Amino acid sequence: MGPSIGCGRNGEERSALMTGDRQPEHIEGNASPVQEGVIDSLERHWALVVLDDGQRLDWPRDRLPPDASEGMVVELSLHEPVASGAPPEEGIWEGTVEAEAQARCSQATVRLGSQRLHWPAAGRLVPDQPVIVRMQVDPDATDQRRRQVEDLVNDLFG
Fold first, then answer.
1. Exposure pattern of 121-131 as b/e (b: 16+ CB <10 Å)?
2. What is the rounded distance in angstroms from the CA atom of residue 65 to the CA atom of residue 87?
3. In terms of Cα–Cα distance, which of 52, 56, 29 is closest to 41?
4. Most CB contacts within 10 A, which of 31, 41, 104, 115?
């Protein structure tokens, strides 16, 4: 893989080399390690995920983590692919970085199927680079959010 384009701490463009290692590797640099959201609803083939920044994503149900259900808090993280042609795993969706990632240091756009997911702080992302978006359920954050909602309901109607 060739040089990647990313952003330095002050927003200046910088160049770095990506490793040729095909081990699953979290994409480092300034990339936001996770984006959080909630599984809002489960449809026939899709799970509607609403991210904390307001983005909506239709995630294929057959690629959900096994412990995912409506109302669960999930974390999405970017990783380099392990090997091309490998069968899809639960909680994994392969995508690509769109070319505009090179032009903007504040965020990159990751294409997942026909959808686009804006990823803050692009870091070491290469235009047209294949990436994996990994979804993991966060049971502790789910419990915390449910308690917050219960407290709000009790404050309003208690």
1. bbbbbbbebeb
2. 15
3. 56
4. 31
Q: What is the pTM of this model?
A: 0.74
Chain centre distance of CA 46: 16
Question: Hey, where are the domains in the chain?
Answer: 3-8+19-153
Distance CA 75, CA 22 (A): 23
Digit-coded pLDDT (tens) for 11-51: 333 322 233 333 345 555 445 568 999 999 999 999 999 99
17 phi and psi angles, rounded to 5 deg: -95, 135
Measured CA distances, 45 to 61, 110, 113 (Å): 5, 21, 14
Degrees to nearest 5, angle at CA 65 with 59 and 68: 85
Query: How far, in Å, CA of 15 to CA of 19, rounded?
Result: 13
